[in-house]
Structure formats: structure tokens, C-alpha cells
Amino acid sequence: MKAILIFLIALSITSISLAQKPDKVLARVSYSFIHARDTTQKNNPYTENMLLLVGKNTSLYTSYDRINRIIASKKADEAYIKAQAGGTPIVMKSSTEPFKPVTLVDLFFFNNEHQLITNDRVMTDYLVVEETPQIEWKLSKDTTSFSGISCKKATAHFKGRNWIAWYAPNLPFQSGPWKLNGLPGLIIEAYDDKNEVKFQFSGISNIKKEDIDESNFYLGAEIKLNSAAQKTSRAEFDKLKAAFDKDPQGFHAAAAGIPRNRVFAGRSMTGVVHNVINNPLELPEKGQ
Q1: Please, what is the average pLDDT of the chain?
Q2: What are the pLDDT tens digits along the chain (288 aa)?
Q3: Which residues contact 76 (CB under 8 A, 6 or more apart)?
Q4: What is the Rg, in whole angstroms, of the alpha carbon atoms belonging to the chain?
Q5: Nearest to 247, CA basis, from 2, 4, 53, 62
Q6: How many domains does the chain have?
Q7: Cα 108 to the chain's mean position, in Å?
Q8: Quick check: pTM over 0.70?
Q9: Beta strand pairing status for 149-158 and 222-223?
Q10: Domain for residue 274, yes or no?
Q11: Does any domain span residue 114?
Q12: In whole angstroms, what is the distance from residue 143 CA to residue 128 CA?
């Protein structure tokens, strides 16, 4: 446990200079993320609603389902406080629906700086800084449209998959869902050639004053990094994540300053078993 504590301290003082400034949100793009995580259940893929915030230089890709869960939780807390203050009897309702896991990782792209910054979590939030992955797109003359948006086709091999992407030249952003980026127009829809992963376009909206909620990190007027997160490199974060996965009880004990035999690491209180993932989004390249 002492070794784990030293590792945590060493990582927490790592300093990486970040010069990125907040960028005004120009549009919000929503996608349906469909992923056959378990190859034995391809007819029952994982699905999640995702959100892409687009600025002039910056984009942020995150979980729309997680945002809506945060909003619902906040409203429930406000209703509870209001009812308690008014002396109204409070009836706590428990949901009968299973708790659905959501994506906890945020992806920030900074075009001018050629940086990908991932907000990930192991005990606390970390900003993992790395170079933007370069995708060698092959542009095609094929065209189609999604919800009236004219798009052109592009293909590429990236992260172990062959991708087909449809981008909108009239929307001059280099952004797209997940880590797909670098085309001369916003990526509206993308999928792999095996139809195991798909980012399906759900809609796009320009930002109006009434759409802005500064109390919500994701729905404010600007795209900005999590100021409370610790900055680190991919190599250091991967070491931390591997050590945590090997001994989660030791990490919890070191962080809390309590004996490891006092840390309870049991099943989820919701009773939900996490889905089998034998087909991750990023696949190893052949020969690796």
C-alpha cells in the first residue's frame, strides 16, 4: 500500500503546460452510439446517446445520457429540498429499471495545438494529454444527405477498424464523434465496415441564449477543460490505471488512509452485471 501511495503522490505532482483557452460553443451535435460490444450478442448491441460540442478551434465529445442523468438528479434534489422546507411529506421512489452504465470519458480536441486531451478517472479526474491521432482519410466522390445535410464520403483504417464516414463540407469543422476527426467538414455519420460500431446522426442545433445553462459544465457557453482535474501523460495514466485494476482495494485504502482490510469491494448495489466486452471500440492492429 505504501508503494501505491507513493505512486499516487508522484503522479499528482506531474506538471504539463496547457495553454488552451475556453472556446465559444457554436453548435451541439447529437449522435446515437451503437456498439456490438459482445460478439455473442450482436443482435443486442450497447447503445448510448452522445453529444459533440463544436467551437471554432475546439470540440468536446461526451455522453448525452450522462448529462441528462446529472440534470435529472439535480431536479430531484431541488424538489426534495423544496418539499422538505415546506413540510410536505416526502415519498422516496425507487426505480424498477436496471441502472445503465454510461461513458465517463470526455474527449477534447484542440485543432490549432494538435492536441487530444482526455478527461478520464481513476479515483479522481485526470487530463491525459497527447498528440491528436492522424487519420489518413481517402476522399470519395460519393454523396448522400442526412436530415437535409449534404455529405461526402471518406474512408480510413483507424484503431484496428475500417471506417466509412460521411462529412458535411458546408459545415467547416474538423470535428466528429469519438476520435474521428480531420476531414474538411463536420462528420455527420460514421460506421465500421463490419457494422459493429456506428455513430448515427441524431441532430444539430446552433446555440441560442436560452439553450445556455452555466450551472451545467457541458451546457454552458464555452468549451473548457475541467480545472479540478490533474494533468498527466498517456504513459503515466496507463500505468496508474493498470495498477488500480490490479489492486483496487489497495488504491482505495491508500487514498482514504485506512487499512486495506477495511475496504469493501463487493458487487454493484444496483445488482447490474457489466456487459461483456470482447469487442472493444479500439482493436489491436494485426501483428501486435
Answers
A1: 83
A2: 444 444 444 454 444 445 568 899 999 999 999 999 988 888 889 999 999 999 999 999 999 999 999 888 888 777 777 777 766 665 555 555 556 788 999 999 999 999 999 999 988 899 999 999 999 999 999 999 999 999 999 999 999 999 999 999 999 999 999 999 999 999 999 999 999 999 999 999 988 889 899 999 999 999 999 999 999 999 999 988 888 888 777 766 666 566 645 434 444 333 334 457 899 999 988 765
A3: none
A4: 21
A5: 4
A6: 1
A7: 9
A8: yes
A9: unpaired
A10: no
A11: yes
A12: 36
Domain that holds residue 245: 2-262
Beta strands at 124-131 and 149-158: parallel, antiparallel or unpaired: unpaired
Position 76 in a domain? yes
- Residue 278 phi, psi dihedral angles, 5° rounding: -105, 5
Length of the chain, in residues: 288
What are the φ/ψ torsions at residue 252 (nearest 5 degrees)?
A: -60, -40
Residue whose entry in the numeric block shows the C-alpha cell 462528420: 187
The residue type at 26: L
Say if residues 150 and 171 touch (Cβ distance below 8 Å). Answer: no
Is the residue at 7 inside a domain? yes
CA 70/CA 45 separation, integer angstroms: 24
Closest to 190 (Cα-Cα) out of 227, 158, 235, 224: 158
Q: Parallel, antiparallel, or unpaired: how do β-strands 124-131 and 230-233 relate?
A: parallel
